[in-house]
Amino acid sequence: MLFSVTLSAQDIQGFVTKQIQTYPKSRLLDIYKSSFQDYMGAEHLVSDRQRVKAYLDEELQTTGLDDLMPWYYEPCGVNGQYIRVSIKAIKEDLITEDVLLDAFIRSANSDMRPTVESWRDRWHKIVGTIDQMELNLPNYQQDREFIDSILSVGKYAISHSPEYREAYRPHYRIVEKGIFENEIKPVIESKTMIVRIAEIEVHPKYLKEYLEAARNVGAESVNKEPGVICIFPNQMTEDENKIRIVEIYRNKEAYKHHLTTEHFQTYKQGTVHMVKSLNLVDLSPLDKEAMPLIFTKTK
Q1: For the stretch 231-257, what's the b/e string if a residue is b when 16 or more beta carbons lie within 10 angstroms of its beta carbon?
Q2: I need a surface site. Which of 54, 111, 147, 292 has the fewest CB within 10 A?
């Protein structure tokens, strides 16, 4: 991995804006921490595997699913060279504890770790851009002076702000992007449901034909494909030419298979000229455990 202090102001602004939109309780400390993790990875080298495992064991035992953010992973900082992997992925049996532990330790002990001096230069570029954004973050000057003070004596590790911890209860481990994409992401995606809404607008002259095609592909997909949980077309009451299709697939592989089926290809090729616009909106279910009950109640 190559590290550079070169960053564009636009990239920094985009990251900071997204951070604040996603986590409104963020302080400069939290922006610093994500930026640091993106560049340096975990805050310390890991020499004692048993100690790290014991800490993870305790965290898993004392943290409930309701305490965790809805995501399984998110990139750090501006470039996303490291990924925060939530322990939620372990608690929902998407990956094992050993898989995350091994990935975390290897990432923390990488021999490509940059110097504190290069990180200090990079942070000065980031915070200089943040200064110009005039965000009015709480305790901004206090946080800025604190960060400068630790960097001036060769230190760099900090905790999330109390406000961030209280609001978002972060429970994750940092994994290098290459390790994550090769070893963890494929496993999570293979076991994670895909839930989305297809937003479709149909040319009025084809409406009747399209509705029939949508009904057919929905019924055939659910009947013939074990991995298709739901394809449920709906017509908007306020505009009959706008269709909303609720789609739920058991996992990514089920969705990929669906795209290859004869009934889907017949639908796709037969309606492409009928569709004025198409937008796919991916969703993250807040309570997957409730889904079996929801479908049972339709009987």
Answers
A1: bebeeeeeeebbbebebbbbbbebbeb
A2: 111
